[in-house]
From TrEMBL:
The keyword Transcription applies. It comes from the Bacteria. InterPro entries: Homeodomain-like_sf (IPR009057), HTH_AraC (IPR018060), MethylDNA_cys_MeTrfase_DNA-bd (IPR014048), MethylDNA_cys_MeTrfase_DNAb (IPR036217), MGMT_N_sf (IPR036631), WH-like_DNA-bd_sf (IPR036388). This is Bifunctional helix-turn-helix domain-containing protein/methylated-DNA--[protein]-cysteine S-methyltransferase. It comes from Bradyrhizobium brasilense.
Length: 298
């Protein structure tokens, strides 16, 4: 597996955060252009112009960011690629269950262990809980990391200037919790999530899932989807024994509070269509393209 495109020091040192976020801003502009024009196979010069960088800079940016050339990344945004991600998606979930991945242990590449908050705690809107939060650079823009003493409870993303709006959106999920800004205290979690060198079985990432019983079942199913694969909403519905609940599954996917870690970006329409994503389709494309680089698409 390739190392994280954004060096860990950029995640750790506040003075270097702007470099990481500038990388994603250029990537975001390139992705938007590629998404609109991929059928015409645009040149790297055209992609670079859209991203406001030179062709050489764009090439090195994508190599640094995801281990991909711009051309390979363009291939990762095609409908054909999305259909390949869905290939045998139902059997992927079956294999996960057969391997015992439905319980604590290695649930996917990040080596996640999880627990669900009790229904009583959820019904109170997390009343009496203290949630610590911080803003950190990531490969996908500013990450908003929210934590309890038991582990990671929330992960959201924002473009420059929209950080407080995104944070307010997260707070509405748990309106009765107390919130304390703790950038230093949440930095290690950000590091653990986005530095692939820390994706180790002996250091599992603890996640607390705060939602209804149905939502938690959907999110637990998403945790079984490996990097480089995807599932349809109907596959998830069947897996949780609610085959007619695809629409409700889609709503639960959209309410996933731990983006990227609980990989809701790997949920696609049956046709391979990306459909919606709470933090923007461009960011969903960025995550799928970044993951293509990690699993070795060249």
């Amino acid at each position: 597996m390739m190392t994280l495109a954004i060096h860990d020091q950029r995640l750790a040192k506040p003075g270097l955060q702007s470099a990481a976020l500038r990388d994603y801003d250029s990537v975001r502009r390139a992705i938007a252009f590629i998404s609109e024009h991929w059928r015409t196979q645009p040149t790297i010069e055209a992609m670079a112009d859209a991203a406001a960088v030179t062709p050489d800079e764009l090439h090195h940016l994508f190599r640094r960011w995801a281990g991909l050339t711009p051309k390979a990344f363009m291939q990762a945004l095609t409908l054909d690629h999305a259909k390949n991600l869905l290939r045998d998606s139902a059997s992927v979930l079956d294999a996960a269950l057969d391997s015992g991945l439905s319980g604590p242990g290695r649930l996917h590449d990040l080596f996640v262990t999880h627990e669900a908050m009790s229904p009583g705690e959820w019904k109170t809107g997390a009343g009496g809980m203290t949630l610590r939060y911080g803003f950190h650079p990531s490969p996908f823009g500013t990450a908003i990391v929210i934590a309890t003493d038991r582990g990671l409870a929330g992960l959201a993303f924002a473009d420059h200037g929209d950080e407080q709006t995104a944070f307010a959106d997260m707070k509405r999920r748990w309106p009765n919790a107390s919130y304390v800004e703790d950038t230093d205290g949440t930095a290690a979690l950000a590091q653990r999530v986005f530095d692939t060198r820390l994706w180790r079985a002996d250091q599992p990432l603890r996640v607390v899932l705060i939602g209804t019983d149905f939502e938690v079942r959907v999110w637990e199913t998403l945790l079984k989807v490996p990097m480089g694969r995807a599932v349809s909403y109907s596959d998830i519905a069947c897996k949780i024994n609610s085959p007619k609940a695809s629409r409700a599954v889609g709503a639960a996917v959209g309410r996933n509070p731990v983006s990227f870690v609980v990989p809701c970006h790997r949920a696609l329409g049956k046709s391979g269509a990306l459909t919606g994503y709470h933090w923007g389709i461009t960011r969903k494309q960025a995550m799928l393209g970044w993951e293509a680089g990690q699993v070795g698409l060249h």
